[in-house]
Specification:
Order of helices and strands: EEEEEEEEEEEEEEEEEEEEEEEEEEEE
Radius of gyration: 18 Å
CATH topology: Pectate Lyase C-like
Mean pLDDT: 86
Oligomer: single chain
CATH architecture: 3 Solenoid
Number of domains: 1
CATH class: Mainly Beta
Helix content: under 10%
Length: 267
């Protein structure tokens, strides 16, 4: 199997070279007046291995940084930063129906959502630094990682700071996800470190069958919260230091909480 290599380099148009020839996965335009601001999102519509070779800023009107619209994609941010403008949009958005995606090695700052995974399967998010602006509510406010009705999502070894919600998992379609070894730190306005909720469909059932382990959750009002109909998830070996409540399980006994360390801290 031939591996296809791609590079994302600002300010040139994205090009990819493969056995199929040279093609452009996305059409980009630059706003010359503002230097490094993009006029539209970078859209990955072809499978392959992508590498970011220079940091850039997303659309200052509130667009996404990178949109992954194809399966079988690995994107290495190369240690670079993608910056947003504190308006609606995601640093990286994985589109519905996409599967087999890896996102790693870089930073996302100034987005309403750091990474948004909706309706996808088998996605790995690893080694990212996600920074919010500590803008507070109303809910959902800024979110580090958002997972909606997605399965087989692995979120490991990421650092999230200054968001209203650290990691937000939603919908009865979410399950079999693994969230571990992350560091989640709220600012002055952090509300929930890890939150499990239904989606917006009107169905009360929340995610099930997830494993949430070995996370450090600190300086949120509530460290870990599960909604009334979220059941069958396992939370173990997490360290939680919250301002008001370390763990809030709305329906007691519906999930498994084991060997977690918790404390309430003074703001």
């Amino acid at each position: 199997m031939t591996r296809t290599a791609f590079r994302l380099a600002f300010p040139t148009v994205v090009l990819a070279v493969s056995s199929l020839g040279v093609f452009a996965p996305s059409a980009l335009a630059n706003d010359e007046a503002s230097g490094r601001w993009l006029m539209r999102s970078r859209v990955i519509s072809q499978s392959g291995h992508y590498e970011v070779t220079r940091g850039f800023r997303a659309d200052r009107r509130g667009g996404n940084g990178i949109v992954i619209a194809a399966s079988d994609v690995t994107i290495d941010l190369g240690g670079y930063a993608i910056e947003g403008s504190a308006t609606p949009g995601a640093g990286i958005r994985v589109m519905p129906g996409v599967s087999n995606v890896t996102i790693t090695n870089g930073s996302l700052t100034g987005f309403r959502v750091g990474v948004d995974v909706t309706g996808a399967t088998n996605v790995r998010i690893e080694g990212l630094q996600i920074k919010g602006g500590d803008m507070g509510g109303p809910p959902p406010g800024e979110i580090g990682v958002l997972i909606v009705n997605s399965r087989g999502v692995v979120v490991e070894r990421n650092v999230v700071t200054g968001t209203f919600l650290g990691i937000f998992v939603r919908g009865a379609g979410s399950g079999g996800n693994r969230i571990g070894n992350n560091t989640l730190t709220g600012g002055s306005n952090g509300q929930l470190g890890i939150c499990y909720n239904p989606d917006d469909s009107g169905v009360a059932t929340g995610p099930s069958g997830d494993l949430v382990y070995d996370n450090l959750v600190s300086r949120f009002v509530v460290g870990i919260q599960t909604s009334v109909a979220t059941a069958g998830n396992l939370f173990r070996d997490n360290s939680v230091a919250a301002f008001a409540q370390a763990v809030e399980e709305v329906t007691a006994g519906s999930n498994v909480f084991a060997d977690n360390l918790s404390t309430v801290i003074v703001p």
